[in-house]
Amino acid sequence: MKNEYQNEVRIIGGKFKGKKLTVNEAQGLRPTPARVRETVFSWLKDSLNNASVLDLFAGSGALGIEAYSRGAKKVELVDLNKDNIKSINECIKNFNDNNIRAINADAIEYLKKCNTHFDVVFIDPPYALNIYESVLTLLNERNLIDENSLLYVEMRNGTNQSVVGYEIIKSENAGNSKYTLWKKSSLLF
C-alpha cells in the first residue's frame, strides 16, 4: 500500500534544522507532519534540554531526531521495520554520537526488557495495532517514566483513548490524526 507522503521529511528546528530524513513506504507509516511537529515541540520545549527520549514506532525517526536536534541528551528510536531502522542509522551515523541509537525491535518486547528512565516518550504506532493501552501500562509498570515524564501519543482522530494512571494534558486534531500530550495522573486510583 503506497503512503500519501513524499519520500522525505525535514527536521524543522534545532541544530539539525533542514536535515532530510528518508521515509520508506511501509504499511501504517504516516510521518508526523511538520505543522503537527511544530505544535508538539512547542509543548515540549522546556522538557527536552538534556532529556532522555524514547521514540517508539519510530518510522522515519522524525520525532526522535527532532528531539535530539532540539537538545535531548539521549534518544532511543525503536521500530520493528528493518528498512526504517536502516534509514535511521544512515541518518544518525553522521551525528557521530553514541547518545542516539536506532533499535530494531518490537515495541512491547523492547519495553519488557528496558531498564532506562525516560523524560519524554513518543508513541505513534500504526493505528491498526490499537496498542496504546499496552504500551502505556508497560511504561508505568516497569517504572520507565515518572510523574515529570511527558508522553506524546498520536492516534486516529475521533479516538477517545484513556488509560488508568494517566491524564491527557493537551490535545489537538489535524486531518485524520489526534495528537495528545499525556503524563502520569496526579489522582490516586
From TrEMBL:
An annotated Gene Ontology molecular function: 16S rRNA (guanine(966)-N(2))-methyltransferase activity
Family, as annotated: Belongs to the methyltransferase superfamily. RsmD family.
Coiled coil: none
Top-level taxon of the source organism: Bacteria
Enzyme class, first EC level, given as a word: transferase
Catalysed reactions, semicolon-separated: guanosine(966) in 16S rRNA + S-adenosyl-L-methionine = N(2)-methylguanosine(966) in 16S rRNA + S-adenosyl-L-homocysteine + H(+)
Gene3D superfamilies: Vaccinia Virus protein VP39 (3.40.50.150)
Biological role stated in the UniProt entry: Specifically methylates the guanine in position 966 of 16S rRNA in the assembled 30S particle.
Keywords: Methyltransferase, rRNA processing, S-adenosyl-L-methionine, Transferase
Protein name: Ribosomal RNA small subunit methyltransferase D
Annotated NCBIfam families: 16S rRNA (guanine(966)-N(2))-methyltransferase RsmD
Keyword Mitochondrion: no
PROSITE patterns: N6_MTASE (PS00092)
Organism from which the protein derives: Succinivibrio faecicola
Enzyme nomenclature, EC number: 2.1.1.171
Gene name linked to the record: rsmD
